[in-house]
Design goal:
homodimer; alpha+beta; Dna Ligase, domain 1; two-stranded antiparallel sheet; 16% strand; globular; DNA-binding
Chain lengths: 147, 147
DNA sequence: CTTCATGCAAAACATTTGCAGCTGG
DNA sequence: CCAGCTGCAAATGTTTTGCATGAAG
């Protein structure tokens, strides 16, 4: 996956450029996030990191994720119920499609949002910085299992 | 405000119909939510209720809001940072425009979302139940104050 | 009267923080 | 070397819960 490798390289470069230290634990967290099709939770990242570095603490994972968030290298999908999810592959706002049964999160293709944003800005005078769009539903697999 | 009064009446009817008790505290919470232009937080509701019923507890406000949520009579805008906000006037999913400086929340007029939802369903096979769309930005007033 | 709601305090839980010791550069 | 990272444990802050008392119907 050259796409993910370049995301990882980009993240590492950004850390280096700003004189943050490259530790084994950090590399591991970045690797997982850069190749994150599944929008992992901190807990998921933690478990995966611990396979290679069993002494890693949850706090370190949180700190690394927070750092990446500040550098705009990961998109946080916060949920009030907790169990936030992270997208390191596409760290910019984009729509998500969330299965309320199996909790998988998918990135659908959806273009029409930019126009909406512009329209909103001119209507309200707001300076729009960002957005969040989630659709909730039941994925095809979970629909099958119910029947 | 006939609109808000009817919302309040509707909420009360729903509680009665399902044999939930009508207590003074509940009426007060419903009243505030039914007329909630400002998308109040639980804390805000709590303070307002206490003006008339000073012994009311925060737990009671939480319980009432949770009940209304289950009855689909209030829309919860959950934020992972906490301080969830509630819309009792329009208890169905709709877009919100949030000022990241003063935290006011506005309901903009935006139609084009239903078409998007239908398109998404046919593309992905998901059965779409609900959605959440928030725009974040700086409102005109806060833009002024900055300058 | 009986059941359900209230109010208090304690619990729950994800995330953050303080700090001593370790380590990358 | 030494600033900054790690790992542990304790703190945080919102929301939930258990339980005794009180009020709705």
């Amino acid at each position: 996956m050259p796409q993910n490798e370049s995301r990882l390289a980009h993240m590492l470069d950004k850390l280096k450029a700003q004189h943050f230290r490259i530790t084994p634990q950090r590399i591991e967290v970045l690797r997982i996030l850069a190749g994150s099709d599944g929008h992992p939770s901190v807990e998921t990242i933690y478990e995966e990191v611990r396979r290679d570095f069993p002494t890693t603490s949850l706090a370190t994972v949180y700190k690394t994720v927070t750092l990446l968030k500040e550098l705009n290298e990961v998109l946080e999908l916060g949920f009030p119920e907790g169990g936030n999810r992270y997208d390191g592959a596409r760290p910019y706002p984009h729509p998500h499609l969330i299965c309320t049964t199996c909790h998988r999160i998918i990135d659908p293709d959806l273009e029409s949002l930019e126009g909406v944003t512009r329209e909103l800005a001119s209507e309200t005078g707001f300076q729009i910085i960002s957005h969040r769009l989630d659709f909730f539903g039941i994925c095809p697999e979970c629909q099958e299992k119910k029947n």
